[in-house]
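Extended Data, panel c. Modelled sequence:
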Amino acid sequence: MTRSASFRGILRYLRPHIHLVVLSLLCALVTVACQLVVPYLVGRAIDCIVNAQNIDYPRIFRLFAVIGVCIAAAAVTQYLMNVVNNRIVYHTLANVRRDAFAKLQRLPFRYLDSHPYGETGGIVLADAEQFADGLLLGFTQLFTGVCTIVGVLGILFTLRWEIALIVLCATPVSIVAARFISSHTYKTFKQQAEVRAEQTGFIDEAIGNLKVVKAYSHEDENAARFREQNERYRACSLRAMFYSSTTNPTTRFINSLIYAGVALTGALLSISTAGAFSVGLLTSCLSYVNQYTKPFNEITEVLAEFQNALACAGRLFTLIGEEEEPSDENAADLGHAAGEVVLRDVAFSYRKDVPLIRDLSVNVPAGHRIAIVGPTGCGKTTLINLLMRFYDVDGGSVSVDGQDVRSVTRRSLRRNYGMVLQETWLKRATVRENLMMGNPDCTEEEMIDAAKEAHADGFIRRLPQGYDTVIGAAGSLSEGQKQLLCITRVMLCRPPMLILDEATSNIDTRTERLVQDAFARLMEGRTCFIVAHRLSTIRNADLILVMDAGRIVEQGTHEQLLAKNGFYTKLYNAQF
């Protein structure tokens, strides 16, 4: 995303807080006005001292009183401005993060599967924080800096146009230098943000799979990859810091030249005009030059940080602007499905150049149990993704109760499915809250009965606080216990259709037999899709679909398929 697009995105998020922006600008104006009055009054006070015997003390005290009031007013308005700026920035940050996280909920699975989770999380967290820091600096120093520059120029032209002209002529040099530095800084900070996101993604991957890394003694390879990423991050960070750190000395050098030119010109004017340009006025002008050049130092520093903020904002707005799943607001509500599922001439592939499922057709009457078997990579889980409409078919159709799933809302479709996957997911909450996710209105008795059916009640009661124990932390439960909780959760929902994808893979054989009995009762009268590698668990299925290379190569009951002595028979015999 370009800088201009990122800047427009920031303005869009600032629009709801325009009243606070106006208040901040007013505070900046008042603060600057009070600060600009002080040098003039100090110059007038100096002019009250003609010599040791001729000092206008009453006027000096009056001027000091006004100076004190101005300083106090500037302090109050500056404090108020900082409070308002903090409110603007952190409300904006909250809104950006809210929209970014909401976007994650609406992104198609194709995007999530093609981007590392750590990188995506780094955009929402780290990049958003960098964006807020740069924006806060911009509001805090940019407003007052611009107001100070404009105010000082106006005063200098009022006091002495020759000095104002010197300052004005030297200003473009500072602007050109700042522009050159900021343009290079943006590129380097953008590269830094990209490498940081890549590194965050790798760290997330490495920590999440540390057991596998250690099991295969892959620590050295991971360390080498991290060193390579770290070296790239070091290099681009050094370049970014180099360009950003050149702003201050460059502008200070230019500002020192301006100060020297004003001092020399003022001294010559004071000598040549015979008192028309007083020492006090020269002092005021020199103070104004300092006030004029200081914002340039601050603004150039702010611009360096703001380039970093723009780079991070660009990544955030790119995420927020990603194409969402097509809206289904106007689609029909599936209601409570009977469970008849028909796949007709289905074609699908994750990559257009690598076909996966082709010409797949099957009719599943309501209440039937369908087992899906086949070698790894044959398309079993992909078929489940199509049933749940995590992906849309490239060709053909998937329908439930005669309605194409693309014509009904995703929410109503998924509400009719209960799903237990091989990969368990439990949120950081109590056992009770995790179990009631699918059925928040269930009673305590229903929850406990479902846990007993899934043979999870025993270990739940042995937890420190039983059903009120907070879980979700790494190592708090075994994989088998997590899977039993997921099974309990789906049993509590009792949906009209079930998807069991290796639902008992992490459970010991004895408990699996008991859970299979519970599943048998749960599946009565429900349409069930069962993905299993252990073929002994699907003997009682009404229909077994044997898949290979994205096609159904055989289908029938367990006995019919064995009698064919084909692909299924080879798979079955290979397990014994």
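The longest helix spans residues 57-106. This feature is highlighted in the accompanying rendering.
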